[in-house]
Amino acid sequence: MKKVFVGISGGVDSTMAIKILIEKGYAVTGVFMRLFSFREEEKKAKEIADFFKIPFLVFDFRKEFQEKIIKEFIADFKKGITPNPCVNCNQKIKFGLFLKEAKKRGADFIATGHYALKRGEFIYKAKDSSKDQSYFLCNLSKEQIKFSLFPLGNYFKKEVKETIKKEKIIPQKESQEICFIEGEPMAYLKKFIKAKKGKIIDDKGVLLGEHNGAFFYTIGQRKGLDLPQGPFFVYKKDFKKNIVYVTKDKELLLKEEVKFKKANFSIETDFPFKATAKIRYRGKEMPCIVYKNKAIFSLKQSAIASGQSIVFYKKNKLIGGGIIYE
After folding, report:
1. Topology of the domain comprising 194-248
2. Which helix (H) or strand (E) holds 187?
3. Backbone phi and psi for residue 137, each to the nearest 5 degrees, phi listed first
4. Is 89 annotated as catalytic?
């Protein structure tokens, strides 16, 4: 009987992952990854493991999560870029440290409640396109994919909720977008980054007002500008001079070329090649030509933000990604 360690958050998705794997005949162990100090999640995870009568372990990754995820998240904002901590966390923590520790304890696989499919050595989009999370798995190595299972890949979220509702256990509510932040991300960042007054200038060179730091703004942002006669959108930042440039003209937000670094491809291919790509999780997937460090889209893309991930697909197959820097 194959042993699988399931990352259990206490939510409906990881609960369903456990149920599916038990029914498939795996020897399941529930593992709570302690990343920060939200104690209710850990308590709920233990309740769910007890409900299914499976072993329960706690892996304490707080130190590593602080160093590799939270500190890097804050450092990136200080550099004026907009990071994607979920992509980083999946690579380094949830499919990095977790896999390493699970294998030490004799696990054959790890599993999570991510909505994605695995076929052979590759990750594919989930059946439920509205919940597909393959985007966040773009930096996984071949080794990480090999030893990972994604039980929810063939399920719709509605099915998962309905199935778990019939069980005599109530999972906790869905987690927020950035798990370690309660409330607004900018309010959180202001605890670590000092305000620095700067100019807000429009596309005609007119001074419109002041801001508290260019690092608090991202390309395409509209909310939080507090400018009369809007709406205005951030279309450019001069981080060295601490200037935020805004416009009403959405055409200025459009670019056809996206440069990226730290590329990770799960297939060997000759460049350039045709693919589709997303420049943000909820963004629309669009055709492009992929080079070693850039992608050129058939239609211009709006609000390309440095620090976000560009993720490439061939049909439903995830073929890689990189970090946008221009």
Report:
1. SH3 type barrels. (2.30.30)
2. helix 185-189
3. -105, 15
4. yes
